[in-house]
Amino acid sequence: MIRKDGTEAILKLATSLVTEDGKSIGFQHIARDVTEEKRMQDNLRYYLQEITRAQEEERKRIARELHDDSAQALYALTRQVDNFVRTNTNLPADNVAFLGDLGKQISKVLQDLRRFSQDLRPPMLDDLGLLATLRWLVSESRERCGIEVDLKVVGVERRLPLEVEFTLFRIIQEALRN
């Protein structure tokens, strides 16, 4: 509807049947201006999308830093421990065993860090899409928890808007964790 001042208004109409002695005699229409409510809903939807986008970008940045910096440093550390043991053949056996255990612990931390980075923001979500990422997530859940999980997809396989894919991924990820 266009108001007298030329601005556009969004109306919500409610219609009811008016009866008298059981016979329909007309309709009653009530119109309510919901322009401001609609504007607020649109703003809220926009801000929620922006918050979600910002969170996903931050997760992507953190995951990339974990992978590029921390994971690389841990990998280099395992190589250094291995090289130290290999080049120092005169080390006492208990030191060799200690360094071997240290290398295994570092490797375990590295695996955990890679898994955490993947969980935080799997790069395949951007590259391959939701379905491939969900297949990976289901496979990971089976391996980690030993619980049989089936993924069934109905319909045509296609990419959704990234925000939708992120949201669906987070929902399913949380469901599998619990």
Note the main attributes of this structure.
single chain, 178 residues, mainly alpha, 2 domains, two-stranded antiparallel sheet, 5 helices, elongated
Distance between the termini: 49 Å
- The strand order across the widest sheet is 1-2
Helix count, DSSP H or I runs of 4 or more residues: 5
Overall helicity: 55-70%
Q: Give, in order, the helices and strands.
A: EEHHHHH
**Overall 3D shape:** elongated
Number of E strands: 2
Q: Kindly provide the radius of gyration, computed on alpha-carbon positions and rounded to a whole number of angstroms.
A: 29 Å
Q: Assign the structural class, choosing from mainly alpha, mainly beta, alpha/beta, alpha+beta, or little secondary structure.
A: mainly alpha
Strand content: 5-15%
The largest β sheet comes out as: 2 strands, antiparallel
Low-pLDDT stretches are none
Q: What is the mean pLDDT?
A: 92
What's the number of domains? 2
Question: Describe it for me?
Answer:
This protein folds into two domains: 37-121; 122-178, no CATH class. The chain has helices at 35-87, 93-120, 123-127, 130-145, 162-177; strands at 11-20, 23-33. The protein is elongated. It is mainly α. The chain has a two-stranded antiparallel sheet. The relative contact order is 0.08. The longest helix has 53 residues, at 35-87. Helices cover 66% and strands 12% of the residues. It contains five helices and two strands; from the N terminus they run ββααααα. Helix 1 runs antiparallel to helix 2 (93-120) and helix 4 (130-145) runs parallel beside helix 5 (162-177).
